[in-house]
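can u pls check wat happens w/ flavin-adenine dinucleotide
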Amino acid sequence: MSKIAIIGAGYAGMSAAWDLRNAGHDVTLYEADDHVGGLASGFREPSWNWSVEKFYHHWFASDAAMLGLMDDLGLREKVLFPRPYTVMYHKERFYPLDSVLKAILFPGLGWGVDKIRFGLVGLFLRLTTSWQELEKYSVDEWMRKWVGERVYKLMWEPLVVGKFGEKYAKQVNMAWMWARLHARTTRLGTFEGGFQAFSDQFAQKLIEHGVTIRLGTPVTRVERDSASGLLTLATPSGVEQADQILITLSPAIAAKMVPSLPASYLQGLLNLKSMGAVVLVLALKEKLSREGYYWYNIPKSAGFPFLAVVEHTNFVPPEHFGGDHIVYVGDYLEPTHEHFSMSAEELLAKFAPHLKKFNPNFEPGWVKKAWVFRTAYAQPVPLVNHSRNIPALKTPIDGLFLASMSQVYPWDRGTNFAVEIGRRVAREMLEP
Ligand SMILES: Cc1cc2nc3c(=O)[nH]c(=O)nc-3n(C[C@H](O)[C@H](O)[C@H](O)COP(=O)(O)OP(=O)(O)OC[C@H]3O[C@@H](n4cnc5c(N)ncnc54)[C@H](O)[C@@H]3O)c2cc1C
């Protein structure tokens, strides 16, 4: 029986812990926060009987790794697939965009050759599996060539600029777009009680199976001691030893945590790019979207100071939140952006005039409470030929492994792929 330390109790760390413990090892999860779930964690007001994710979250019907884990945990019957509406902004109005048919009917595309190119390219990306060919091109050059300038500017450029900002929008590779279109469905899922309820039930199952979970325990350093040859990790309660260690944090944090990694591997970690996210969560007295829309995609060029408005209670009914209407106002930004240092009140004051575009009756008096959540590591940026840049899960330090969102490529980050990479790294750790 090996002693295994896993740093981070997000979905990657917890999934790896499940398989490693079931293979008979002595597993401890070290979590800096006071709860499990990582980026997918949630919070709850006393009057709510469901939690709200700090960052909007849903599953896709195609999330096979996630649903497979649910089966293994015996929790599959608690996964729900309501049918919310997604819309896109075009010329001062919002249009439904949550099915192939609605995308084809989108008026911005007209009725000529553009619509046919949009449909054919969408079909090709849905069917092809050759992402290695696609990663040689940027989304910008590939899409302009195949769907044409007008369709690209209208349908795809807003998504790329929104997610990656002007800085990276022209460099993101086409395999990223392929992964989104290839692996996602319009059916969206959640867990009974919210994602935090799932995380807590998962943690409970881990504990019942013998995994130790140490909350409020940030790991600061990992190294293989050259004199004793032992693999160690430093925690607030002292230095501890393990036979194998798995880090599930961002590559940049991992690089700081393990400065003794060989220079080339370390540099590979530091070269990886990512975007942060800032999300304002509002509990409103009234429903924002009179049409009942869940997800509003907003092009940056339309002049809104945010990328998406997501009315959670048009996905999960407000009755679960004591009648509050929960709205996220979110954006992907570089951590140097001013929104990273603004309070919830300051962000609300900046965003409120724009929320009238979603409902002309909206007024700040509707806001019962506001919260802001931020993370510097929200979205890895895959550049052209990115597969060459993905660090191996097994690091050059014997017994030390790394499994982060940046390594799920060609897939886009998501809880499904956190589960997939967690289980994949567990298999590698179990190899003799
Ligand atoms: C804005 C936003 C929206 C998203 N929307 C969706 C969605 O709709 N659907 C979906 O499936 N996914 C979504 N995701 C992605 C999803 O949340 C992530 O892919 C997934 O949660 C990553 O899991 P992980 O275990 O790899 O990392 P994390 O969840 O980041 O887990 C890492 C854990 O390590 C802990 N930690 C950090 N430092 C230390 C330390 N020094 N010592 C010990 N512990 C430490 C952290 O507290 C955290 O719990 C979204 C993410 C964001 C940011």
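The chain has a mean pLDDT of 94.
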